Amino acid sequence: MKRIAFIADLFRNELLGGGESNDANLIRHLMKQFEVLTYKCNKVTVQDLEKVDALIIGNFVWLPDNVKEYVINNAPYVIYEHDHKYVTTRDPSKFANFKAPTSYLVNEKFYNNAKTVVVLSKICEEVMKLNLPNAQVHSIGCSLWSPETLTLLRKLNKEPKIHDYGIMKSANPTKNYTATMNYCNSQNITPLEMHSSNYYHFLEQMATCKNFIFLPTVLETYSRICAEAKMLNLGVATNKKRIGFFSEPYSEQSGDELIDTIEQKNIEALEYFVNLIERI
């Protein structure tokens, strides 16, 4: 049985973010096929990595330079990309046509030497290839959900909708809560301000809304929350050019039809990861 290391800045038990949720669902599946060791970037050592056959690297902001250099030169590795760590701004939408000047590019060697950089959406694949033409980039075309969550979404999308609008109340500046509230005020909209440390409770709140307003300040690599809104039969008001989910052709679907599609995309994505690890 292959032994693989999964390295990330944080894991889902520490932060309920989109990247961490993706990682958790991938790790859960890989454990059925491989021996999986998890390491935080700020604690992993070269000695740890000498014991494994392959690496998957999620968010790597805190990965020490000496470990990164060892990985580049010695270890077969895959990058599971959740944002845009190849530009200093972490957001290629700040540049015309998403093309960053070369002075803004970072981590080029790390991306270019990966066996594969796996991204979540069509637009992120296109933008990364535009900025890093030598990287081997593959889009799985979806975020990853647990079967239990998809089952819950099927149940919740049948619930009555009692609020006209909902927004996400978040301290993360990229989610643009203050500007979103200002927009709502200008339109005489009183939204449900959705917030909960319990992920399932948050989905229950969202299910009571007819529409979701989301005005992020960055290019969202996928946007689980927009996909979840549509799976719950909400309308979504957003800048679709900034949302990876909306670059996928199936984003026009909603409700159970969308859940069926995402469920199949998840199966294909997980199979892709298993085959990828077996090959390297």
Can you tell me about this structure?
This protein is of the alpha/beta class. It has 2 domains: 3-142 and 264-279, Rossmann fold, CATH 3.40.50.2000; 147-254, Cobalt-precorrin-4 Transmethylase, domain 1 (3-Layer(aba) Sandwich), CATH 3.40.1010. The longest helix is centred in the C-terminal third of the chain and has 25 residues, at 255-279. Helix 6 (147-156) runs parallel beside helix 8 and helix 6 runs antiparallel to helix 10. The two termini are 13 Å apart. The protein is 37% helix and 16% strand. Helix 4 (108-112) links the parallel strand 4 (77-80) and strand 5. It has 10 helices and 10 strands. It has helices spanning 18-30, 46-49, 65-74, 108-112, 122-131, 147-156, 177-186, 199-207, 224-231, 255-279; strands spanning 3-8, 35-40, 54-57, 77-80, 116-119, 137-139, 163-168, 192-194, 209-213, 235-237. The strands form 2 sheets. Strands 2-1-3-4-5-6 form a 6-stranded parallel β-sheet, sandwiched between helices. The protein is globular, with a radius of gyration of 19 Å.
Could you write a compact summary of the structure shown?
The protein has helices at residues 18-30, 46-49, 65-74, 108-112, 122-131, 147-156, 177-186, 199-207, 224-231, 255-279; strands at residues 3-8, 35-40, 54-57, 77-80, 116-119, 137-139, 163-168, 192-194, 209-213, 235-237. It has 280 residues and is of the alpha/beta class.
